[in-house]
Amino acid sequence: MKNFTLSAFADEYSPDVTLQIKALAENGIDLIEPRGVFGKNISELTEKEAERLASMLDEAGIGISAIGSPAGKATFESIDGHLAVYENIIRISKILGAKRIRGFSFYCDPGKDRDAVMKTLYKMINSASKEGLLYCHENEKGIYGDTAERCLDIMQTFNGGVGCVFDPANFIQCGEDPAKAFDVLYPYVTYMHVKDALYDGTVTAAGEGEGHIGDMLCRLYKDGKQTVLTLEPHLKTFKGLTELENGERTKIRTAFSSNEEAFLYALEKLKTIIKNIKTEDSENG
């Protein structure tokens, strides 16, 4: 798809890696953002397990868009243990041949903890960079970078040394206008996580919420900006979801009979948005 390359959190399709790979192959998705693998979070893999995963992905012709790690999802009270986990994430990333690590900016008091956030991010970003990896910050509720203003602060502080993962639904869940956030962060966007949401916090498929995803993708398309779109449906509870969240839980729609059905529905909605953009461009061209 011109301008857009699809990836996915395939653990939302199935916890079984074999089925994850099968679903990606059958639906024309060449990349994965691995997160739930072999019954555990990607950060907990052993080197042997990472080698096994690398072999499976290589055999299927599936590449890695980023490591869907929980880096930066910690308080400063637990930072030493967290940094030890992060070193394993870097080891796993190298074995898998990844170039990007998705991460966050800590559960903290944004007003009091900015210096601690930046100092710790500096260490993590440098550790990744030394191994040829780019730390990509994602906006999410409850962390320092949960608003567009503080995400911009991180981008400007590290001046190109950190990537920006833009998630429209997460901004909505923080009470932010995702369209305004997109304008602010547009020059820094490295790739996107695709899920939508309503302002009551309920996650929806792309185009069914208040995320302005169609407008965002149209802008990227018209500007010729090559962008990875990582599908993250969140339309049905899946194994490991509870461990990924802090505090208030995401409101999940329960209209789907299975994780597979929810995943495929979300994928179809995203593909429809992309198809409509291309059709409109062709008609206007």
Account of the protein in words:
The protein is of the alpha/beta class and 285 residues long. It has one domain (4-284): Divalent-metal-dependent TIM barrel enzymes (TIM Barrel, Alpha-Beta Barrel), CATH 3.20.20.150. Helix content is 43%, strand content 16%. It contains ten helices and 13 strands. The protein has helices spanning 17-26, 47-60, 79-96, 114-129, 148-158, 168-173, 178-185, 213-222, 241-244, 259-284; strands spanning 4-8, 31-32, 36-37, 40-41, 63-64, 67-71, 100-103, 134-138, 163-166, 189-194, 196-197, 203-204, 227-231. A seven-stranded parallel beta sheet has the order 1-13-10-9-8-7-6. Helix 1 runs parallel beside helix 2 (47-60), helix 2 runs parallel beside helix 3 and helix 8 packs across helix 10 (259-284). The longest helix has 26 residues, at 259-284. The mean pLDDT is 93.
Summed up, what is this model?
The protein has 285 residues and is an alpha/beta fold. The protein is built from ten helices and 13 strands.
